[in-house]
Structure formats: C-alpha cells, structure tokens
Prior knowledge:
The complex is a heterodimer of chains A (348) and B (242). Chain A is an alpha+beta fold and 348 residues long. Chain A has two domains: 153 residues, no CATH class; 179 residues, 2-Layer Sandwich (Heat Shock Protein 90), CATH 3.30.565. Chain A is built from ten helices and seven strands. In chain A, a hairpin with a 2-residue loop joins strand 6 and strand 7. In chain A, helix 1 runs antiparallel to helix 4 and helix 7 runs parallel beside helix 9. The two termini of chain A are 34 Å apart. In chain A, 32% of the residues are buried. The N terminus of chain A is likely disordered. Chain B is of the alpha/beta class and 242 residues long. Chain B has two domains: 128 residues, Response regulator (Rossmann fold); 108 residues, CATH 2.40.50.1020. Chain B contains eight helices and 15 strands. The chains are: A alpha+beta (348), B alpha/beta (242).
Amino acid sequence: MATTTRTALSRGALALYGMAAVTLAATASSAFFLWARHASPGLAVAAALPPSLVLGVIALASRFLCNALPLRSASRSSIVIGHAGSAAAASGLWVLTWKSWVPTLNSQMSAHLDPDYSLLFGLGVMLYVAAVAVHYLVLEIEALREAEDEVLRYRVLAREAELRAFKAQVDPHFLFNSLNAVASMCGSRPLEAREMAQRLADFFRLILRLGALERITLAEEIDLVQRYLAIEKVRFGDRLTTHIDVDEGAARCMVPPLLLQPLVENAVRHGVASMVEGGTIDITATLEDHMLRIVVDNPADPDRTDARGEGIGIENARGRLSAVSEGRAMLQAAEAEGQFRVVIELPR
Amino acid sequence: MIRTVIVDDELPARELLREFLSADEDCEIVAECANGFEAVKAVAHHDPDLLLLDIQMPKLDGFEVLELLDRSPIVVFVTAHDEHALRAFEVHALDYLLKPLSHERFQQVMERVKRAAGHDRQPVAGLATSLRAKPLQRIVVRGEDGAIQVVPVSRLDYIEAADDAILLATSGTKLRKQQPLSEIATQLDPDRFVRIHRAYVINIERIEKIELYAKDSRVAILRDGTRLPVSRSGYQRLKELL
C-alpha cells in the first residue's frame, strides 16, 4: 500500500516537472529564434510562452502513447510509426498555435514578428522526440524498480518456503513404520535389520546435510530419493516398483535441495500405498533447450480418502520452486485415469 | 485358544505380529490379510476371537472394515498414527498398539484380550460408522452376495430411505445399505448434502432446478431427469444453502 502511494506521488510530480521542462525548453529556444530575427527579448518570450505551454501539455500526454507502445514488447516499426505520426501531429499543432497567436500579438503590440515556421516545426518535432525519450527512460527505471521489488519478494518467499519445507520434510510416520519393519526383522533376519537401520541413519544424515545447502545437483537429489525408495521397498515389498531415468545433462543441473523427495514421498504415501496391488513410481528427468523437465508419475486410487496432505506437499514444492527461480519455473500436478503426475519445468 | 486374524498391508508388520503371537501359547493365527477386503472375508469365514487391525490400508481402511463386519471379534488397532489410536476407543476397540510395536505392551494388551474373551461384547459394526471421520468421504456397502462396494460420496446423486435401510443412487444404479437415513444424513458434508424430504437426502451439485408442484409443495429435478419431492422444511434448508 505504502509503496503504491509513494510511486503515485513521485509520478505526478515527475509529470509536472517534465511538462515544465518541455515548456521552458520550447519557450527558450523559440524565443531565441525570434530574437535572432530582431525581436526584443521580452516580446520574444511573451510570444513563445503560450505555444510552448501547448507543446508542454502534448509532450506530457505522449506518455500514454509510450505506455501503449512499450519498448520491450511492441514491434519496432509500430513504435517508430506511432511516434513519428504523433510527433508530426504535435509539432503541427504547435506551429498552428504559433500561426494563430502571432498575428494577434502583432496587431495588439504593433510589433512585427516574423517567425520561421519550418524551423519551428523542426524544433517541435525535436522537443517531442526528446520528451518521448524521457518517458521511456522513466518507464524503464520504474520497471527496473518493480523487478527489484519482485526479487526481494521472492527472497522472502524463499525463506518462508524453506522453513516450511524443513518442517514438513519427512513424515514422522515413515520413521515409525520403518522402525517397525526393523523390529520385525530383528528376530528372523538380523543382518537385514542391521542393514535397514543403517539405511535409515544414512537417509536422515543425507537429509540434514543436503537440506543445509542452497543448491545441489539433480544427481544428488535423485540419490536421496533412491535411498528413500529403497527403505520403502522393504515395507511395501512387491507392491512398490520404481523406474528412474535421468539423462546426463539433467543430472548435472542445479536444483533446490529436497525438491523431489517430498513429491516422491507423496507418490508412495497417497499413490502406491492407496493401491491394493501397488504400482510403479516413474521418475524421468531430461534437459532440452536449457529447460530441465522432471516428471514424477504414479498410480493412485481416485477414491482414496484424505487427499489433504498431498496438496500441502505440492504447494510447498511449488512455493520453493518459484522462490528459487524467481517465478520462471513451473510445477503442475494432474490426476487422470488413476495416474497422478507432477511435472516440473525449471529453466537452467 | 484365542483365534486371531492379522490385518496389515505391510509384510514386515504382519511378520512382527506373527512372531509375538507365536510366542503366546494361548493364541492361534487363523488368517493373515494384506488388505481390508481380505479381512472382511476372513472374519466372515473364520469367526475369530481377535482381530489385529491396521488402519491405513488401500481401498478399505480399518474403520471401514469394522463397519462391514457381521461378527464381533475383539478388535485391537495396530497403527503408526496416534490420532487414529485415540479414535479406536470410540469404536469400541479393546485397545490399540502403536508402531513400532513394543513386546511388553503387546503382552499387556493380550492379557486384556484374554480377560475380555468369552464375555459378551458390543457389536463393533454400526458404532464404527457413527464415529468415523466427518464429513464422510466414502460409503462402504456389503451386498447380499458378500461383495463389497466402496462409493465415494462425490458419486452420489441422492439417498433414498427404504424402510430401515437406505438406497444410494449413483448414475442410475441403486445400492442398498442397512442404515437409517437420519444417521447417514448427519455424517455427510452439510455444504453438499441436504435433506430435502423425510425420505430423501440430495447432492446439491446434481440439482438442475426446483419447480413449484402444487401449493406449498415443490419438486427437485436432477440433471438426469429424476424428480424428487421437496418438503416445505426441505425447501427452507435448500434455500439457506443456495
């Protein structure tokens, strides 16, 4: 709220200053031409002021045209044609004002002013173009400031998302269930129990280590996901199969840590676990045209209850992703015909 | 002998229960089930004394299994979720075990089971329904042939009272379930299901229009053309919602 009023105020002031500057410049330069043609300085200024005021207003109004023809998106030809046309019209109006104003002045002040209208026309065009240039400059500065604000906002979002993600990273029930599996194997398969305990410890150490980093390679994230899935396979047995396909370029890409892990956890908890027969979690990552694309695919029972948890996981991932990529990345989640699919696109 | 059925969708969890139970001379495992459907069948077939029941399972969760049982074994929930464990008592489960399982706690619970065995028990079915998570997301129905159907409430068009049972109408077909309409009406999402008549609860998303039929009596016309009577008080409830 505060920032909008601030810019609105300075924008209004800026407009007034701009108008005054154009009027002043037009008055000074055209008065100089009159004086050069033997008019007294006072008369020259008095003659030049009213038409210059008109030009000042027109130059101010050209801001609307600049807004309509933004440098970044409008085509170059439409910018040139648009402003050339309006420059000619503005300057024509300015000369017309001169032509209707000078005779009245001549008769009232019994003076003899004889301005060079073609010269004035050229001057009008130049001043108009200068005003347009200034408008574009101001617009660019504003855009830059907005972009900076945006970056700042994303940084705040990133911090918040990181905090949330850290809290929600691993479902505690995953730990309880895995420990139950360890307890179960202690009696009959002690070696496997020991191995499972080791895997759990390694997984949690890795979570802590990677979670503390700003960025990691996708290969590291996939390694974490694979460790997680290996533990879940002990619990789910044949019900959980996985297929992971990451191309070489994609593996080297940098991603925020623990981006995929919660999504894969979702795929197990709300996907494969909801199916009596289980299913396959399919993870593919490709790098094409500087765009990293990651797809997580899993079957899910459309009639499963309690779909709330998964929404939160996906929202968290989306928040983190847009925070680290400053809004350029995309995360889509869709469910159709018993398949749940999350697609991430992250520009490299 | 305590004849026991183990239900858990994870093999290691079943193995652990099996190990604990085999150490107890008074217990005998009559069936091991990996999902709710198998559990309902096994209970019908074996009429066990004890059901060790996981809660989070695919298709049918532990609470839904209880609702479908026509016998009343002693029920002990086995879960990693403490929040479910609290609800276990509400459905008259005898006790609950938290994962990872402690052998000591298991033995304590088995002592309770042995004391309770042989005594008359309250039937668990029915009670389970009334205390399930609200609003209801799925309705489980057991057909006369024993086949189990799970109906997500989003697929319901309307529910019709038929004597002491209800008919669940979903795109043309009607499933019969032994339950009073007044009971299920209180379990459904009140923003989506309205009792428009003594004998009808309607899914408001299916309503095409409401027409005046006679003085003070209206009729609801559904998207598929079905016409259902709307009582005066039913119309009041509808108006408040729409």
